[in-house]
Amino acid sequence: MTQQFRITLLPGDGIGPEIIAVAVDVLNAVGAKLDLQFVFTEAPIGGCAIDATGNPLPDETLETCRQSDAVLLAAIGGYKWDSLPRAQRPETGLLGLRAGLSLFANLRPAIILPQLIDASSLKRDVIEGVDIMVVRELTGGIYFGQPRGVFDAEGDQRGFNTMVYHGSEVDRIGRVAFEAAQKRQGRLCSVDKANVLEVSQLWRDRITALATEYTDVELSHMYVDNAAMQLLRWPKQFDTIVTGNLFGDILSDAAAMLTGSIGMLPSASLGASGPGVFEPVHGSAPDIAGEDKANPLAQVLSAAMMLRYGLSQPEGAAMIETAVDTVLDQGYRTGDIMAEGMTAVGCKAMGQALLKALN
Ligand code: NAD
């Protein structure tokens, strides 16, 4: 029997509509092969939503997302909306979406594809074979902790934030990370600053206690300063990394940039239940919007993550990942990953090559 999934599409701004169109074609092609039916509903978010309604995340958009099995987001933002007050900025819509769907776990793979090894700024032997998953806590820690603020204090100013985690928050993200590690090479490195911060000691204690439930996963701990160094020195030592919001923000960007190609990086944000949001790491690239120059592969790989982590369809995910591999093997490259001797293609042509590879 055909399995049906309701997918909310949030094309957003800039190159968003161009790249999401490619992902939709790819999903439909995979669906036809695996007897899966995707029912897509499109909704506005970010700058286009501001233009249409004055609100970067209209209530109807959030409600449509809540009613779906998964959300595929492209990117939001652009020069046009940069000078608006914070509450009306496109980014506020994105934060509202994460909060509105209680997405507490952010999964970001950093995989070095052999075809793109020369795009990295690191040496070949350092990065060849790197395959890391960074699991970042997304709704707690210092970005949300209270109290916070800037005050006048005794003739000077004082700015402060609070880094806080509840044990239950650590357990919740810990479970996502242990389960991700189980699906990978079974190694999990928890990153903290337990030599200095009490909140990190709690983090370490709770992750260590959780490990007794996941005896098939090998757990290690690392201080965040060392982790930053080790990511550049010998990234192959990592399989899955779990860390808090602040450390994860920084380390996931560092890990992603090992690959050297922002147009290739997908991500997933998951909650305890309800739909996850799957989106490329890059922004709306307003400098190339509407020119058929965008690389759609991060968006397409986000659709693969949606199948694997959001809809439990690993076979479909693998089909998409293989198709991406194939088109790169065939030498097709968009401008951002172009190299000598390869075939330059635009966004649409890359989409067509993917469909051909799938069939
Ligand atoms: P960006 O990621 O949009 O672009 C950085 C550079 O990478 C640009 O030169 C761009 O052309 C290129 N690039 C990005 N994605 C590409 C792709 N798929 N194919 C080819 N080239 C690609 O970051 P930015 O320029 O700092 O921000 C532009 C806008 O995007 C801003 O309004 C920013 O707020 C927003 N933004 C949104 C998100 C999101 O939606 N999650 C994330 C980051 C930035």
What is the gist of this entry?
The protein has twelve helices and 14 strands.
Strand content: 15-25%
- Give the strand line-up of the largest sheet: 2-1-3-12-11-4-5-10-8-9
- Total helices: the number is 12
Encode the helix/strand succession as letters.
Answer: EHEHHEHEHEEEHEHEHEHEEHHEEH
- Radius of gyration (Å): 21 Å
Bound molecules: nicotinamide-adenine-dinucleotide
Q: What would the principal axes of the Cα set say about the shape?
A: globular
List low-confidence stretches: none
Structural class based on helices, strands and sheet pairing: alpha/beta
Total beta strands: 14
Q: What helical percentage do the residues reach? A: 40-55%
User: Main sheet?
Assistant: 10 strands, mixed
Quote the distance from N terminus to C terminus.
Answer: 22 Å
Mean pLDDT over all positions: 95
Written description of the protein model:
- The protein has about 350 residues and is α/β, with parallel strands linked by helices.
- It is built from 12 helices and 14 strands.
- Strands 2-1-3-12-11-4-5-10-8-9 form a 10-stranded mixed sheet, with helices on both faces. It has a two-stranded antiparallel sheet with strand order 6-7. A two-stranded parallel ribbon has the order 13-14.
- Helix 1 (about 15-35) links the parallel strand 1 and strand 2.
- The radius of gyration is 21 Å and the shape is globular.
- It starts with a strand and ends with a helix.
- Nicotinamide-adenine-dinucleotide binds near residues 78, 263, 287 and 334.
